[in-house]
Amino acid sequence: MSDAETLSVYAAKAADYAKLTNAETASPHLLRFISKLPAGARVLDLGSGPGFAAGAMAAAGMDAHAWDPVLEMIAMAEQYQGVTARQAVYSDLTEIAAYDGIWCNFSMLHTPLADWPDHFTAIARALKPGGLLHFGTKVGTGEKRDRIGRLYSYMTQEALLALLNQKGFEVDYTHTGEDKGLSGEMARFIVLQGTARG
Fold first, then answer.
1. What pTM was computed for the model?
2. pLDDT tens for each residue of 138-172
3. DSSP the chain
Protein backbone atom coordinates (compact mmCIF):
# COMPACT_ATOMS: atom_id res chain seq x y z
CA MET A 1 0.00 0.00 0.00
CA SER A 2 1.55 3.27 -1.09
CA ASP A 3 -1.42 5.58 -1.68
CA ALA A 4 -0.48 8.74 0.22
CA GLU A 5 -4.04 9.81 1.00
CA THR A 6 -4.97 6.39 2.41
CA LEU A 7 -1.84 6.29 4.56
CA SER A 8 -2.48 9.78 5.91
CA VAL A 9 -6.04 8.83 6.90
CA TYR A 10 -4.80 5.81 8.87
CA ALA A 11 -2.04 7.85 10.51
CA ALA A 12 -4.52 10.50 11.62
CA LYS A 13 -7.18 8.02 12.75
CA ALA A 14 -4.94 5.29 14.19
CA ALA A 15 -6.49 5.46 17.65
CA ASP A 16 -10.04 5.38 16.28
CA TYR A 17 -9.19 2.43 14.07
CA ALA A 18 -7.66 0.58 17.01
CA LYS A 19 -10.87 1.01 19.02
CA LEU A 20 -12.91 -0.23 16.07
CA THR A 21 -10.83 -3.36 15.45
CA ASN A 22 -9.65 -4.47 18.89
CA ALA A 23 -13.08 -5.99 19.53
CA GLU A 24 -12.24 -8.50 16.78
CA THR A 25 -9.48 -10.11 18.84
CA ALA A 26 -11.72 -13.06 19.72
CA SER A 27 -13.38 -13.27 16.27
CA PRO A 28 -14.24 -16.83 15.16
CA HIS A 29 -12.08 -16.30 12.07
CA LEU A 30 -9.00 -15.49 14.13
CA LEU A 31 -9.66 -18.34 16.57
CA ARG A 32 -10.05 -20.75 13.65
CA PHE A 33 -6.81 -19.51 12.06
CA ILE A 34 -4.88 -19.98 15.31
CA SER A 35 -6.37 -23.43 15.92
CA LYS A 36 -5.28 -24.65 12.46
CA LEU A 37 -1.62 -23.77 12.98
CA PRO A 38 1.06 -25.87 14.73
CA ALA A 39 2.44 -24.96 18.13
CA GLY A 40 5.07 -22.25 17.86
CA ALA A 41 4.08 -21.43 14.27
CA ARG A 42 5.80 -18.52 12.53
CA VAL A 43 3.04 -16.17 11.39
CA LEU A 44 2.80 -12.85 9.58
CA ASP A 45 0.06 -10.27 10.09
CA LEU A 46 0.38 -8.49 6.73
CA GLY A 47 -1.16 -5.03 6.89
CA SER A 48 -1.52 -5.45 10.62
CA GLY A 49 -3.01 -2.11 11.59
CA PRO A 50 -2.72 -1.79 15.39
CA GLY A 51 -1.64 -5.43 15.64
CA PHE A 52 -4.51 -7.02 17.57
CA ALA A 53 -4.35 -10.23 15.49
CA ALA A 54 -0.58 -10.52 15.81
CA GLY A 55 -0.95 -9.96 19.54
CA ALA A 56 -3.48 -12.78 19.81
CA MET A 57 -1.17 -15.08 17.86
CA ALA A 58 1.78 -14.20 20.09
CA ALA A 59 -0.37 -14.83 23.17
CA ALA A 60 -1.10 -18.29 21.73
CA GLY A 61 2.65 -19.03 21.70
CA MET A 62 3.38 -18.25 18.06
CA ASP A 63 6.32 -16.38 16.55
CA ALA A 64 4.23 -13.42 15.44
CA HIS A 65 5.33 -10.71 13.00
CA ALA A 66 3.30 -7.58 12.19
CA TRP A 67 3.88 -5.49 9.06
CA ASP A 68 2.17 -2.20 8.30
CA PRO A 69 3.17 0.90 6.30
CA VAL A 70 1.84 3.34 8.94
CA LEU A 71 4.26 4.15 11.76
CA GLU A 72 1.41 4.97 14.16
CA MET A 73 0.05 1.45 13.64
CA ILE A 74 3.46 -0.16 14.13
CA ALA A 75 3.89 1.73 17.42
CA MET A 76 0.68 0.11 18.68
CA ALA A 77 1.58 -3.35 17.37
CA GLU A 78 4.92 -3.16 19.21
CA GLN A 79 3.04 -2.91 22.51
CA TYR A 80 1.89 -6.52 22.25
CA GLN A 81 4.26 -8.84 24.06
CA GLY A 82 6.00 -11.24 21.69
CA VAL A 83 5.16 -9.35 18.48
CA THR A 84 7.95 -8.32 16.12
CA ALA A 85 6.65 -5.24 14.28
CA ARG A 86 8.08 -3.69 11.13
CA GLN A 87 7.13 -0.84 8.82
CA ALA A 88 6.66 -2.66 5.51
CA VAL A 89 4.35 -3.06 2.52
CA TYR A 90 3.28 -5.96 0.33
CA SER A 91 6.16 -5.52 -2.08
CA ASP A 92 8.57 -6.18 0.79
CA LEU A 93 7.35 -9.78 1.02
CA THR A 94 10.16 -11.63 -0.75
CA GLU A 95 10.76 -14.54 1.63
CA ILE A 96 10.42 -18.15 0.51
CA ALA A 97 8.70 -20.85 2.61
CA ALA A 98 9.14 -18.69 5.70
CA TYR A 99 5.72 -18.74 7.38
CA ASP A 100 3.27 -21.34 8.63
CA GLY A 101 0.45 -18.80 8.29
CA ILE A 102 -0.20 -15.36 6.83
CA TRP A 103 -3.07 -13.24 8.13
CA CYS A 104 -4.12 -10.70 5.50
CA ASN A 105 -7.26 -9.08 6.88
CA PHE A 106 -8.75 -6.15 4.95
CA SER A 107 -5.41 -4.70 3.90
CA MET A 108 -4.80 -5.79 0.29
CA LEU A 109 -7.98 -3.91 -0.63
CA HIS A 110 -6.01 -0.67 -0.29
CA THR A 111 -3.67 -1.73 -3.12
CA PRO A 112 -4.46 -1.45 -6.86
CA LEU A 113 -6.32 -4.42 -8.33
CA ALA A 114 -3.62 -4.79 -10.96
CA ASP A 115 -1.17 -5.70 -8.17
CA TRP A 116 -3.30 -8.42 -6.56
CA PRO A 117 -2.00 -11.34 -8.70
CA ASP A 118 1.60 -10.48 -7.80
CA HIS A 119 0.68 -10.05 -4.13
CA PHE A 120 -0.91 -13.50 -3.99
CA THR A 121 2.09 -14.99 -5.79
CA ALA A 122 4.38 -13.49 -3.12
CA ILE A 123 2.14 -14.76 -0.31
CA ALA A 124 2.05 -18.28 -1.76
CA ARG A 125 5.83 -18.24 -2.11
CA ALA A 126 6.32 -16.98 1.45
CA LEU A 127 4.13 -19.70 2.94
CA LYS A 128 5.50 -23.13 3.69
CA PRO A 129 3.83 -25.92 1.69
CA GLY A 130 0.45 -26.45 3.32
CA GLY A 131 0.72 -23.05 5.02
CA LEU A 132 -2.48 -21.24 5.92
CA LEU A 133 -3.76 -17.99 4.42
CA HIS A 134 -6.49 -15.85 5.96
CA PHE A 135 -7.84 -13.17 3.64
CA GLY A 136 -10.55 -10.58 4.18
CA THR A 137 -11.75 -7.97 1.71
CA LYS A 138 -14.78 -5.97 0.63
CA VAL A 139 -16.86 -7.34 -2.22
CA GLY A 140 -17.61 -5.48 -5.43
CA THR A 141 -15.93 -4.32 -8.62
CA GLY A 142 -13.50 -1.60 -9.59
CA GLU A 143 -11.64 0.95 -7.51
CA LYS A 144 -12.88 4.04 -5.65
CA ARG A 145 -12.35 6.15 -2.54
CA ASP A 146 -14.59 6.04 0.49
CA ARG A 147 -16.04 9.16 2.13
CA ILE A 148 -12.89 9.72 4.24
CA GLY A 149 -10.50 9.40 1.28
CA ARG A 150 -9.18 5.85 1.47
CA LEU A 151 -8.53 4.05 -1.81
CA TYR A 152 -10.43 0.76 -2.12
CA SER A 153 -10.13 -2.03 -4.65
CA TYR A 154 -13.06 -4.42 -4.98
CA MET A 155 -13.37 -7.94 -6.35
CA THR A 156 -16.34 -10.28 -6.65
CA GLN A 157 -16.34 -13.51 -4.69
CA GLU A 158 -16.17 -15.54 -7.90
CA ALA A 159 -13.20 -13.60 -9.27
CA LEU A 160 -11.37 -13.77 -5.95
CA LEU A 161 -11.81 -17.54 -5.59
CA ALA A 162 -10.66 -18.05 -9.18
CA LEU A 163 -7.55 -15.93 -8.60
CA LEU A 164 -6.67 -17.78 -5.40
CA ASN A 165 -7.07 -21.13 -7.13
CA GLN A 166 -4.83 -19.92 -9.95
CA LYS A 167 -2.21 -18.85 -7.42
CA GLY A 168 -2.13 -22.24 -5.72
CA PHE A 169 -4.55 -21.99 -2.80
CA GLU A 170 -7.18 -24.50 -1.70
CA VAL A 171 -9.92 -22.49 0.02
CA ASP A 172 -11.89 -24.49 2.58
CA TYR A 173 -13.60 -21.75 4.62
CA THR A 174 -15.61 -18.72 3.56
CA HIS A 175 -17.83 -16.27 5.40
CA THR A 176 -19.73 -13.35 3.87
CA GLY A 177 -21.59 -10.48 5.47
CA GLU A 178 -22.08 -6.74 5.69
CA ASP A 179 -20.56 -4.36 8.20
CA LYS A 180 -19.82 -0.72 8.94
CA GLY A 181 -16.18 0.35 8.90
CA LEU A 182 -14.16 3.40 9.93
CA SER A 183 -15.93 5.63 7.40
CA GLY A 184 -19.37 4.67 8.72
CA GLU A 185 -20.42 3.23 5.38
CA MET A 186 -22.02 -0.22 5.17
CA ALA A 187 -20.21 -2.61 2.83
CA ARG A 188 -20.39 -6.25 1.85
CA PHE A 189 -17.34 -8.35 2.70
CA ILE A 190 -15.87 -11.82 2.40
CA VAL A 191 -13.48 -13.61 4.73
CA LEU A 192 -11.82 -16.84 3.63
CA GLN A 193 -9.08 -19.23 4.67
CA GLY A 194 -7.18 -21.82 2.71
CA THR A 195 -3.88 -23.62 2.34
CA ALA A 196 -1.03 -23.20 -0.12
CA ARG A 197 -0.66 -26.25 -2.34
CA GLY A 198 3.11 -25.75 -2.40
1. 0.88
2. 999 999 887 766 778 999 999 999 999 999 999 99
3. ---HHHHHHHHHTHHHHHHHHGGGGG-HHHHHHHHTSPTT-EEEEET-TT-HHHHHHHHTT-EEEEEES-HHHHHHHTTSTTEEEEE--GGG---SS-EEEEEEES-GGGS-GGGHHHHHHHHHHHEEEEEEEEEEEEBSSEEEE-TTS-EEEEB-HHHHHHHHHHTTEEEEEEEEEEEE-TTS-EEEEEEEEEEE--
